[in-house]
Amino acid sequence: MGVRRRVVEPGALELQLMVFSAWAAWGDAMDRLVHHELRASLAALLAVVVSAVVVGLVRGFPSVRIGDRLASSIAALLAFWVLIELLKATRIKWFGEVRDFDAATPVDPETVLPIEDFWHDRPVGLGLLPMMLVPTLVLALFWEPWMCLMPLLWGLEMAAKAARVAHWERKNGRVLWRGRVVSQPWELSWSPVGPRTPARTATEAPPS
Description:
- The chain has a four-stranded mixed sheet with strand order 1-3-4-2.
- Helices cover 50% and strands 7% of the residues.
- By secondary structure, it is of the alpha+beta class.
- The chain is globular.
């Protein structure tokens, strides 16, 4: 009789991170979640700038008249987006991402965590940039020029998530990491804020 294994379905956060695991798995195996989201957000902003310049030089932008109806639609969309982001900052099932943060497992004390200067080492997710830039340019050049702003929506989402992660870390005194398991980079783990306590030897004395 074979042994049946329970398959755990990934949640909303895991699925989102799974999509970009291929481009994100460069450099250190483990990466701070807040840095991961900030890199994605900056890559989206860079994609907007590059595609806007290309579209402006090749095709140009049509004039847009912002009437009351369009302004009301934009305001309604922004209000809806803010509501969704506020729900994600809660523990409400199907919406809140804080549940995923709370479910993170502690990092093994023997794990050597990567140390990096975010702005000096790699502030932009270069692996994501072509994945966002190419389809944006195709849509903007051959369909609607204003589609060059499309990556901005995803960039705002990632920036908001980075803010939620930073708030959770500050509130709980922990640092969230992704990539503890290379084959499952969406799984989250945490380590205490600040220097880690050195492992003790068999004589209960800290190593020199």
